[in-house]
Specification:
InterPro entries: GIY-YIG_endonuc, GIY-YIG_endonuc_sf, UPF0213_domain. Belongs to the UPF0213 family. By secondary structure, the chain is an alpha+beta fold. The chain is built from 3 helices and 3 strands, in the order ββαβαα. A 3-stranded antiparallel beta sheet has the order 2-1-3, sandwiched between helices. It is globular and about 45 Å long. The relative contact order is 0.21.
Amino acid sequence: MVVSKPWYVYLVRAANGSLYCGISDDPVRRFAKHQTGKGARFFASSPAVALVYVESWPDKGEALRQERLIKKLRKSAKECLVLSQVLTGDPHPSPLPEGEGA
């Protein structure tokens, strides 16, 4: 049995206040890439300033599914995710149920 390493869905705040959603097997390393202007064209117009949300998934496929759900959310719902992680201090919050927050 092969044990897969976890993948993470993360949100990065840009200097203009917008939120970028992505996945990675190492969100801290990926955030550092975003800060250097590499890894996503999203940050060409407004640099990455903070890694504000991270949630863990058992594999890449599940992380991709959650990323799609989060990307469909309104900005206000994404801000609630960020706030919930700040308030609870939980580095790996529970995932959103299907259809929540849209």
